[in-house]
Write a structure and sequence with these properties.
alpha+beta; ten-stranded mixed beta sheet
Length: 199
């Protein structure tokens, strides 16, 4: 074993201490800073729900829902700070952005409470029927993602992105285009309709 100078040994010991300290700091701080997550799976895979996970980030005022169901997988982000939500449809290779309907979507505090208490775990079609929203997707691409907020801009960057408008009332009865429906945790069903999701 080679002898080391006192300065060299001190640096080496200091580096080891720093690495150990950083590792311990990460172990103890990670639970305090982590998002709350919940996984909801549907073994029967009815209605194409697959497995969903939800994370709520109170610091950034954002909720993220991932639905893993093979080719029909999608990811949704609800940015409570900007009031916009976006859903990335992997099969269609597009992002759809819409204003959040705060009367139908749960508040971030309500969603966070459900996730923390794991009240969504194992719940399914046996509970109250989910609320429903239907959106008409505008065929024109969004030019400037930055106006939709940083979180949505990051998720939709490099992907054709379209705005969608909520449809209400009589227009729902006469709508004939195909729709893509996202069933979010048996809380809300959001349907996106138009040529971009039908093709």
């Amino acid at each position: 074993m080679l002898a080391c100078s006192s300065v060299h040994c001190f640096r080496e010991d200091k580096m080891k201490f720093t690495i150990v300290f950083a590792g311990l700091l990460g172990v103890f701080l990670a639970p305090a800073l982590a998002d709350y997550n919940i996984n909801v799976s549907n073994d029967n895979n009815n209605a194409g729900s697959g497995q969903q996970s939800v994370s709520v980030n109170n610091e950034h005022n954002v909720a993220n829902v991932d639905n893993n169901n093979g080719w029909n997988s999608w990811n949704s982000i609800w940015d409570y700070g900007t009031g916009f939500a976006a859903t990335r449809l992997f099969q269609k290779k597009i992002c759809i952005v819409h204003k959040m309907n705060k009367e139908v979507l749960p508040s971030i505090q309500s969603l966070d409470a459900l996730v923390k208490e794991k009240k969504l775990q194992g719940k399914g079609p046996g509970g109250p029927p989910p609320k429903g929203l239907m959106y008409s997707v505008n065929p024109n691409k969004v030019d400037d993602l930055s106006k939709l907020g940083e979180n949505i801009a990051k998720m939709c960057r490099g992907i054709p992105t379209y705005m969608a408008e909520e449809m209400q009332g009589a227009s729902l009865l006469f709508y004939s285009e195909k729709c893509f429906t996202t069933n979010i945790l048996w809380i809300v069903n959001i349907s996106f309709c138009g040529e971009k999701v039908a093709s």
